[in-house]
Fold this sequence. Notes:
- The complex is a heterodimer of chains A (344) and B (806).
- Chain A contains 12 helices and 10 strands.
- Chain A has 344 residues and is an alpha+beta fold.
- In chain A, strand 7 and strand 8 (255-264) form a beta hairpin.
- The longest helix of chain A has 39 residues, at 53-91.
- Chain B is an alpha+beta fold and 806 residues long.
- Bound molecules: zinc ion.
- Zinc ion binds at residues 265, 267-268, 272-273, 275-276, 280 of chain A.
- The site of zinc ion has 8 residues of chain A, from loops.
Amino acid sequence: MIERLQELGKEALQEIKEADTVKALDNIRVKYLGKKGPITEVLRGMGKLSAEERPKVGQKANEIREEIQSSLEAKTTELEEIALEEKLKEESIDVTLPGKEIKRGARHPLTAVVEEIEDIFIGLGFQVTEGPEVETDYYNFEALNLPPDHPARDMQDSFYVTHDMLLRTQTSPVQARTMQKHHGQGPVKIVCPGKVYRRDDDDATHSHQFMQIEGLYVDKNVRMSDLKGTLEAFVKKYFGPERSIRLRPSFFPFTEPSVEVDVSCGICGGTGCRVCKNSGWIEVLGAGMVHPNVLEFSGFDSNEYSGFAFGMGVERFALLKYGIDDIRHFYTNDIRFLEQFKRA
Amino acid sequence: MLVSYQWLKDYVDIDDLTVEETAEKLTRGGVEVDVLHPRSEGLEQVEVGYVEACEQHPNADKLNVCQVNTGEETAQIICGAPNVAAGQKVAVAKPGAVLPGGMKIKKTKLRGEPSEGMICSLQELGIEQKLVAKEFIDGIYVFPESAKVGEDAVEELGLRDTVLELDLTPNRADCLSMIGIAYEMAALLDREVHQPDCTFTAADQSAAEAVSVQVDVPEDNPYYGAKIIQDISIGPSPLWMQNRLTAAGIRPINNVVDITNYVLLEYGQPLHAFDFDRFGSNEVVVRRANEEETITTLDEEVRTLSAEHMVITNGKEPTALAGVMGGAFSEVQEDTTTILLEAAYFNSSRVRKASKDMGVRSESSTRFEKGVDSGRVEEASARAAHLLERYAGGTVLEGTVEDDFRSDEKRVIETEPEQLNKRLGMDLSQEDILSIFRRLQFTVETEGNRISVEVPTRRPDLRIEEDLAEEVARLYGYDYIPTTLPSGVTTPGSLSPEQNKRRKIRRYLEASGLHEAITYSLTSPEKASRFLLEEVPGTVMVSMPMSEERSTMRTSLIPHLLDTVQYNRNRQINDSSMFELGSVFIVESETLTQQPEEKKVLAAAVTGTWEIHLWQGEKKKTDFFVVKGILEGLFEELGVLDNIQFVPSSRKELHPGRSADIVLNGRSVGFTGQVHPSVEKEWDIKETYIFQLDLDAILAAETEELSYAVLPRYPSISRDIALVVDQNVPAGDVQRVIEEAGGPLLKQVTLFDVYEGENLEAGKKSLAFSLVYLDPERTLTDEEVTKTHDHVVSELTEKVQAVLRQ
Lengths: 344, 806
Ligand SMILES: [Zn+2]
């Protein structure tokens, strides 16, 4: 009987080995291990055996069963793995095909510049302050030390809407308004971004509407060296730590002394190139110490308080930052232009 | 201001500096040199030649065959200029010469005759046509007799020079003169200024016997001085003077006019020469013009004046518009022999008024407008007398006839080193400061720490201590100012809550797929009447617009966004999605009496394909719900979604069936929908969806504090419900009935199907909702849910006549 069992075992293992589907394995299981299977049959005949032989045959039968069982399991796992592999192979895709685009809008480059500058000055303790675009002559000019007949008014031909109201030509009136609100008490630390308007024909370098950011710092004992230090901190943050600034004397009616601020050219590093017109420097800001008349006009005692102010053109910063060649692009909103600033 | 580098050397020693170094010095000192114009660039081998013979070309009517001697040799040159003649001294470009523009001169043959070079016009030598003396405009240039044959013509014409073009700030009127620049340069370099020669020999006869001067309004004209110069012989001015005028951008005319212009450039003091024999009287009366009085100016224009204008008269009629332009009848002419030389100090506003009203900006008016040196008028006059004596044969009568109202008060500004250092953040000694004032040639007195600075009349821009601080800083050098940070109290920097929200809105819309656009605020009156949030009584109109298109401040952001859609469509970009956040300008009355309301508005325009995934065959067109979805997300972001309603709109610029008013807490705050197809046609755009919101109103609305709700610990029970209602019942109404009937247990209602058509009665539609019930405190029983759900169903039956669909 043991021989018979061994034979059965051999047969079964052979069949398992040859099986190539899970179904075939199931059939083999039923065939050999089922209640009507040959092993059960053999065991049924055990009654005829002697008491000595019985446990030996029984043990053998169990051994064979287990052997078949484990072989079946191993084969099943093997076949399942093959089947899974097949399935995955079928499921494979071309990973080089393009992904599904997530629709994203772009930040307007002028907004990107304004926010970046705002954030730098917020970091330096400034508040962001805004004011009206249709402004009174008083705030736009007079409070800024530009009386009606002042020659500097020629510098900025403006859009008047009534005899004493105009589209503001600069964001400086916000400074005057804010100082007034402080009732002669410092400190005042603000940056004022916004749209301004001047009578210019639109072309590649001129626009009748553009954006400015101006800043004002009024407190006791503010020195010109503070202006220089603050602007240097700003320039290094905005343009990069390797850049430096220089001041050149200039003139604005609302500051004295007044300066133009140049930043070292980022293209040539200061040795001179086409972008900086061979000077190594690029003009980026106007600034100065607040004129005592302006302080007094807005209720500050100019003996006690002093301050500095600065102003910059947002378009100019964007032109420099992104190498844009035509100021009109900012306002025509060509999708092909805007789309380029998704990561601005 | 154009400054000849060679000319500047007359007044200050700058031989050790290159022109570039000079320019850099000036620029760093505050007088910005905008451009350098090298005058002889590309100009080589041009010599002074003598035309020995000049004969008609045998084969060409308009050409001449000239024999030109250039010192060592005589060459044949064919010349087509009408004014060429034997005996002239001319500028000859020999073979090998290069002219401006790169033209190379070669030996050649013209109509069979050899030609070895070219006789040049001034234009060919790079001088602008408008600066060429009239007699030479249509032909070659002819040197004066004194020119030496064989000399370098470029040198003779003063072209070995560079012109510095200055970009002056309005405060530095002193630099509208060569001497002013010289003072500046001298201060920068700590050198001397060499003054021009102003000496002349006065005749015995006194000018006061020949003429009288009377000024009516002293404020208009604080000083008027007249000199009389006789025996004038009009002719060309010396070549060197012509060259310098040309370099400065002024065309040479004749010796008298050239001399007045020369002194104007030298001193910044405009002068005027009248032909005294034609003046019409021997009295000069300076007065305001009468209303409607006319003057024919020397450009032959008849100009009508008003009492705002100042004129020089002969006691009867105007002979000049003061400071702006002379009159025609008293103009210096070829036969002029006696001149009245005016040197005056006119009020800048008065001159500006006339210059503006007449539309004339002359070298003279520009200088008076910006302010001339009141202390140097007489000196300029004497300088002109010197030159007239020397170069126009003049005899200067003794004395100046004048009317003088100038104050002789000196302008003194006081300061202390401590004050200046405090302002600049520097540490200069009194000696440092005094040496700077000395370099500027300011007269200084000290008393202890106190410094009193007497400011010369040439620097009227210096008035207060801060002005002195600037002089010290710029001459000491801004590079030497240290960099410090303010030492005052530290304050936290921040955006206002509203500014923060605006940034949030921008970020949200960018992430939703909309690009930010920025359009112009100025628009046409027609566009300012379109797509308004609400009717407005008035608009902000520019008094003198540059064009109709840019005449009115916008009242809505939509028109320019639609323009942008159209602009892109014209460039084959049919899919565009943009938003703009900006102000509109609302006038609450019909006329503008106070500043308008500037309302912050958010708007968008979306058109074309919304989503696209080509190779997977997906494509979704923009529709109402794309834009509505963006808006709902936005309102959620802003914390107002629960209080927002979309109510069918009847705005005439929107599609009547595809538009909604947006209502917040019962008040309309905007609209959304498809642009009305007829309006789309008007703008030449395709199906476009827009929205516009009153951002001020939305940001002012109360929002719920964001706070955490405990996560449910008990299971929820979900029930679906399908209803049939009349087609015209809005789904939103049905949803509201469900929400109200569901009570506190109903946590969520989601519409998941809308169906009209087959299997449904005409005029009906089917809506399917999924309802989720939940009690955060305990497990709900089926019975409780059924009870509430039945109530929901009965409310639906009653309120919207819904029939439950089985
Ligand atoms: Zn460079």
